[in-house]
């Protein structure tokens, strides 16, 4: 360690506050696949790594059971899959902003109705926002247990990849969390 403080770019607020960001872009793919991705730019979340609020939200958004946004879209034959989250890479999470995206793999029929699909996704997010976090922590504890299991039973990774990942963690987390900060949930804070 050089002993120098880690550079922060937190003063560069609102990097996506441009007319170009608040637009719908239609891109013709190379292979025949229909996908709708909705992206939000949020205040930086990296300091909340012990809580992982975006992981909590992505878990709810990505739920596939009864009452989920995906089950509703499947019943309409509009979607095949749905994924929500933040990749926790430098581009998606840093000291200036955090990105949160929801991607829906559409059927041909869903592509014809992509405005309605987008509307359903926004309605679902609005409903989550209105209800607020689970007061009983049941969902959070379930996520915590699953992540802990995955951490304890993970397959051995390539040593070079492991060292690279540790070096990244050393830039982001407190010393005691270098090994676990990118994977485990430590604190439940509904206000975050």
From TrEMBL:
What biological process terms from GO does the record include? proteolysis
Please give the superkingdom of this protein's source: Eukaryota
Q: Which residues form the Peptidase M16 C-terminal domain?
A: 4-137
Does the keyword Metal-binding feature in the UniProt annotation? yes
Task: Enumerate the spans annotated as Peptidase M16 middle/third domain.
Answer: 151-191
Q: Which SUPFAM superfamilies does this entry report, sorted A to Z? A: LuxS/MPP-like metallohydrolase
Q: Per the UniProt record, which residue ranges are transmembrane? A: none
Per its record, what are the GO molecular function terms? metal ion binding; metallopeptidase activity
Q: Which UniProt keywords apply?
A: Hydrolase, Metal-binding, Metalloprotease, Protease, Zinc
Family, according to the entry, reads as follows: Belongs to the peptidase M16 family.
Q: Which PANTHER family match?
A: INSULIN-DEGRADING ENZYME-RELATED (PTHR43690:SF18), NARDILYSIN (PTHR43690)
Tell me the protein's name: NRDC protein
Which organism encodes this protein?
Answer: Tyrannus savana (Fork-tailed flycatcher)
């Amino acid at each position: 360690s050089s002993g120098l403080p880690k550079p922060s770019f937190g003063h560069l607020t609102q990097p996506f506050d441009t007319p170009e960001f608040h637009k719908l872009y239609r891109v013709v793919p190379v292979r025949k696949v229909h996908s709708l991705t909705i992206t939000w730019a949020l205040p930086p979340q990296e300091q909340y790594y012990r809580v992982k609020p975006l992981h909590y939200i992505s878990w709810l958004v990505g739920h596939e059971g009864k009452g989920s946004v995906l089950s509703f879209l499947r019943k309409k034959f509009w979607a095949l899959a749905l994924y929500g989250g933040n990749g926790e890479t430098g581009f998606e999470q840093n000291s200036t902003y955090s990105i949160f995206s929801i991607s829906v793999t559409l059927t041909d029929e869903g592509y014809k109705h992509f405005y309605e699909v987008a509307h359903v996704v926004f309605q679902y997010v609005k409903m989550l926002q209105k209800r607020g976090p689970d007061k009983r922590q049941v969902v959070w504890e379930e996520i915590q247990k699953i992540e802990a299991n995955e951490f304890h039973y993970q397959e051995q990774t390539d040593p070079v990849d492991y060292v690279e990942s540790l070096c990244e963690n050393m830039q982001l987390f407190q010393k005691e969390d270098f090994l676990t900060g990118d994977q485990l949930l430590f604190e439940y804070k509904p206000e975050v």
